Amino acid sequence: EIQMNLSVCVQLWHSWRRCSTAQTETLDRVSMLLQLCVDRYYVSPGQTNVELFQRGLCCNYGPLGMELRRNLLDQWWHSVTKSRAQVFGINTLSGSRETAALGQGQLRIVEYEHLKQSVEQKELNKEQLIQEVHMLLQRSPSTRTNLLQGALEQFVPSLELVNRKLPFGLAETGLCFQPSEGSGCSAEVTQTSLVWFCSPRTSSQWLDHWTRQRLKWWRKFALSPSSFSSSEVQQEELEEAASRGVRIIYDFPWGQEIVETLWSRGDAELLSIHKGARSKLQCRDGRKSVPHVVSITANMDRGVMAFLSNSLQQLKREDSKQKLHQRKVLKLHPVLAPIKVALNISRGATVELRQVCEGLLQEFLEAKISVWPGYLETLPTSMEQLNAKYDEMGVLFTIVIGENTLESGLLQVRNRDTTIKETMHISEIKNFLFRYISATDNI
Amino acid sequence: EIQMNLSVCVQLWHSWRRCSTAQTETLDRVSMLLQLCVDRYYVSPGQTNVELFQRGLCCNYGPLGMELRRNLLDQWWHSVTKSRAQVFGINTLSGSRETAALGQGQLRIVEYEHLKQSVEQKELNKEQLIQEVHMLLQRSPSTRTNLLQGALEQFVPSLELVNRKLPFGLAETGLCFQPSEGSGCSAEVTQTSLVWFCSPRTSSQWLDHWTRQRLKWWRKFALSPSSFSSSEVQQEELEEAASRGVRIIYDFPWGQEIVETLWSRGDAELLSIHKGARSKLQCRDGRKSVPHVVSITANMDRGVMAFLSNSLQQLKREDSKQKLHQRKVLKLHPVLAPIKVALNISRGATVELRQVCEGLLQEFLEAKISVWPGYLETLPTSMEQLNAKYDEMGVLFTIVIGENTLESGLLQVRNRDTTIKETMHISEIKNFLFRYISATDNI
């Protein structure tokens, strides 16, 4: 149903006139958002690429999109591993030869020349040919569709790490591949996964605990937190092994989409992967039970799309000549914003002013504050045009350095969200930015 | 020749007795290193997995290996994007439908069921069958073998970003897939890539610049920096498009292996990918030239292996009873060490002592100092055994909290590299660690 909404929306887009006003507004908003993402270096141009992006799949990201996703993944990592001492990061392979278990193995990596040559062997008859192709496919590694199986495989070596004590979790982020049911057009998704091992009687409580944590996390970075919600999966929709499931959903302009799914999965998959070797899997919780698994899986490509969609504000304002302007601002959360500060020269780019900029740039880079070197741009633009551009990029602060700075050390700092311009001494700016970003991180 | 050395070494391993003393020592050292990596949670157990690791390929990493690679990738990212304002991060897809160019496309992702069904169609004769398999293969996306092509494709949208001004660079890290010439056994590698676009007359200078930078970077984190060296690629070994090449090499116990390669590649590939559309590619450097490409590509899985190998020290020492002990220490650079500090209780784990540990743990986690919750371990071990274990894990500092801490706030801090134990107040410890790690970062 969710996918329906989206494809309906895309169709409507191309048949503009038939839409109702409400629908038209939605489409306007969606197409404006996508155009902005391309224009402002979040997503690389090209229709196919933009479609991948809108569908919540991995696409070619521009520098800002890449940095936004990087920040999002860092925040996820920090939040999950910081939350408790018993969460450990792992890294598993994306291609695996041990397939079949858990219904994996739909996508195979084959060597083009190798398969071609095998098929072209003159001596084979049709039956042998089919046989040969089968064998080659079966031997080829399959690409993972999720991170769960890797974590389940790593359960035994991890048990030693925690002295067989429950609960504990294995965290991983990485690329997964989605088969597309026959169309032959597979897709990539950046997933985050926490696989939580706990005693059977606590698994439902842990599912609730992680649902609360994760929903809080998504809402923390949202401009309108209520766009994120959670809903219990209905009995008839439950995956085979699961006893309960919860979805975290984001309200896109075109309808709801799932950003994260939590399952209480029991012990069946763990037992199946380790071929029923109960004694290897038992933990020291008094009853020697095989732990239950709670899996928490998010799609961070769709997460990027959700936060971009959530943070775009359109504001109408009159200028001094009473002309109506529409201002678009990407009000991304300060810790997510890919560029924290843009550095500009007010007028007459003298050698001295450029040197001041270079110095500040280095200072910011060393403090790991991402900075946009606006002073390098050679096209003349008014400060108003620049601010409009930076607002669309979601740049938190814009610094303007002028003749005045050389004399007094003072510079102008504009805040994206308030549009207020402050005068500040050049020696204070780094700490000011640092404090501002940390303060928003701890709310 | 380099691969030869390794396989010879592996063979020798299994025929122990035929080796010379020097060779036996090498093999001892290698097998000890690999065993330590498995025992101390760097690499997951299993012979196949350990072999991948030793061959410099991506493998299943344990929590410590995962964190080490993460730290290494972070350092690379920071060093490359911090070095100049004109380096931008991108993210490209790992599967691509636009193949063939640059000799890509050896590995294809096919849908198992889809291909199987196509082959099993009753009506096809042998010729049609071969035709069908060909078509399916050709339509399947290919997985990337390097990050170069993605960056070359992103050149045009990036040009706008820099106002057509040279030089600039596109940085990316990600998984690549290596075909294995017929064996059907493809492998994964974590690559870092900086693709640098510059004017034709400066490309050789830039190659030298980046070689210096990169060699300095590798050496910065090494215990014995001279194990990393660079060497110019001989004329007869140059890749087709390249005019010059440099390799950065690490001296493993079994011989030399390449960790990074820099090529001065000219403009042929850029022109070929953009179908010769010179006008789209020209930059504003006075002569309207198509830029030349310098590619800088490292294998970070081999990087992990190199730094582990480089940092392992065996020290002999006598204990108080004049018994000879062999101490193994993983002296990883402080910024790379996956665990900065281990938290332990000296004796009698009372509720109060555990609470002190929990408090410190939270403080460290929030400050993003990675910490090992040793106080959760339930198996009784002597402090000596614990220190030996932490040394093998490469843990920088070990904190011991005792009854004394509750009264005076004092705790004991042991330094991995000096083995010296200091007494410190609990309120000072976080800043002490912070300063220590930052200081080593800025040398």
From TrEMBL, chains A, B:
One GO cellular component from the entry?
mitochondrion
Q: Where is this protein localized, as stated in its record? A: Mitochondrion
Q: Where is the Anticodon-binding domain?
A: 350-433
Q: Which UniProt keywords apply?
A: Coiled coil, DNA replication, Mitochondrion, Transit peptide
Any single Pfam family the record assigns to this protein: HGTP_anticodon
| Entry-linked InterPro entries | aa-tRNA-synth_II/BPL/LPL, Anticodon-bd, Anticodon-bd_dom_sf, Gly-tRNA_synthase/POLG2, POLG2_C
Coiled coil where? Answer: 112-139
Return one Gene Ontology term, BP aspect.
mitochondrial DNA replication
The protein's predominant localisation is mitochondrion
Q: Return the PANTHER family for the record.
A: DNA POLYMERASE SUBUNIT GAMMA-2, MITOCHONDRIAL, GLYCYL-TRNA SYNTHETASE/DNA POLYMERASE SUBUNIT GAMMA-2
What is the official name of this protein in its record?
Answer: DNA polymerase gamma 2, accessory subunit
What organism is this sequence from? Amphilophus citrinellus
